[in-house]
Write a structure and sequence with these properties.
Elements: E1 2-4, E2 7-10, E3 16-20, E4 23-28, E5 31-37, E6 43-47, H1 54-62, E7 66-70, E8 76-80, H2 86-99, H3 101-129, H4 136-155, H5 159-177, H6 201-223, H7 242-265, E9 274-276, E10 282-284, H8 286-301, E11 303-305, E12 312-314, H9 318-331
Parallel strand pairs: 2-6, 6-7
Antiparallel strand pairs: 1-2, 3-4, 4-5, 7-8, 9-10, 11-12
Helix pairs in contact: 3-4, 3-5, 3-7, 4-5, 6-7, 6-9
């Protein structure tokens, strides 16, 4: 059980929530594990299927404390709220910002800054750890380029220009990606990003990691009351969770890409784990996909210190914290949305 920004996160499996006076009580196998006052909480997010008592849900609904139910894997199930109050205001503000391209650009540029900063950190880390196995000159040149690009992004208030800056940086980053693959080079190599379908082993892994990250981000956004389908950088498109794609940009490199590189370099996956379809698509076999998902869930449990909050949290809570920070910015509680800048 972890409290962050007036939100209570319950991540222990098979936990049941009940009400005791003005307190929420966490029970496991009918034994009290923890108790916390409700008067300062804005929401409760619980991972698992055990649920919450009707008394607790009624108490929270009356006091505008939302209860969000997610699976243990982080998939959004439901959100219990009372009369429409603050969430309506929050979503109306989100929609107004989304319709204003200049306001959208001011938010979107922070998503991109976070992405570039974290990818630059990956380059610097690779230079430090593997100077004899890469072209240090190429990595340092691209890192320097990213520093200049971030300055341009920070000053930009035009969405199309932002997309151009991000796209140019992405090309430079992916030119180095193959050099970060240090093992199994015959079977794992990266030439170009291929999506629908992925055409090689690395792209198959990246596509799955990005899909899981987008799902986690969508659940987190819905959990704080935001509309995951109305974005700022990614514009509206039927069926696309544009805001989830926006916020996950910060985590693509430092979370998803590093996860994929780790699976390859530590030989968790190997060539026999993949199959190539008649249309050229490369996918993971069923057993390998289970292995991938298990490793993803373990990664989400790793502890880090959040760079903005300065608190120890699990990696899996980062999408939820960033969603909370975005909601607070839209409400006017923060002067600027703070992107996730990994250190």
């Amino acid at each position: 059980m972890k409290r962050l920004l007036n939100t209570l996160y319950v991540s222990q499996p098979n936990s049941y929530l009940t009400l005791d006076g003005d307190n929420v009580v966490l029970q496991r196998e009918q034994e009290v594990v923890a108790k916390l006052p409700l008067h300062n909480l804005e929401s409760i997010v619980t991972f698992g299927y055990a649920g919450a008592s009707p008394a607790l849900m009624g108490y929270c609904a009356e006091r505008n404390i939302s209860i969000v139910f997610l699976t243990m894997n982080g998939r959004f199930l439901a959100r219990v709220i009372g009369e429409s109050k603050g969430n309506v205001v929050l979503r109306k503000t989100q929609y107004l910002f989304s319709e204003d391209t200049q306001a959208s650009a001011r938010i979107a540029r922070n998503f991109i800054v976070g992405k570039l900063y974290n990818q630059k950190w990956m380059m610097e880390r690779t230079i430090r750890d593997h100077p004899l196995r890469i072209s240090v000159e190429d990595f340092k040149a691209t890192s320097k380029q990213f520093t200049q690009t971030m300055k341009s992004v920070r000053a930009c208030e035009d969405l199309e220009t932002l997309r151009g800056l991000e796209g140019h940086a992405a090309v430079s980053y992916y030119k180095l990606f193959d050099s970060m693959i240090l093992q199994q080079k015959e079977d794992f190599y990266f030439k170009v990003r291929s999506r629908r379908p992925p055409l090689d082993n690395v792209n198959a892994l990246l596509s799955l990691a990005y899909t899981l990250l987008a799902n986690d981000m969508r659940s987190a956004l819905e959990g704080v009351g935001l509309d995951a389908y109305v974005g700022f950088l990614h514009r509206d498109r039927p069926g696309r969770a544009s805001l989830a794609l926006d916020v996950m940009e910060e985590l693509r490199g430092v979370y998803a890409d590093r996860f994929v590189l780790s699976l390859i370099n530590k030989k968790v996956v190997s060539a026999p784990d993949f199959v190539k379809k008649e249309n050229g698509a490369v996918i993971l076999k069923d057993e390998a996909r289970k292995k991938f998902l298990q490793a993803w869930q373990l990664k989400k449990q790793d502890k880090i210190t959040h760079p903005f909050l300065g608190e120890s949290i699990a990696w899996g809570l980062v999408p939820h914290v960033q969603s909370l920070l975005l909601a607070r910015y839209l409400r006017g509680d923060l002067d600027e949305y703070p992107p996730f800048l990994w250190k």
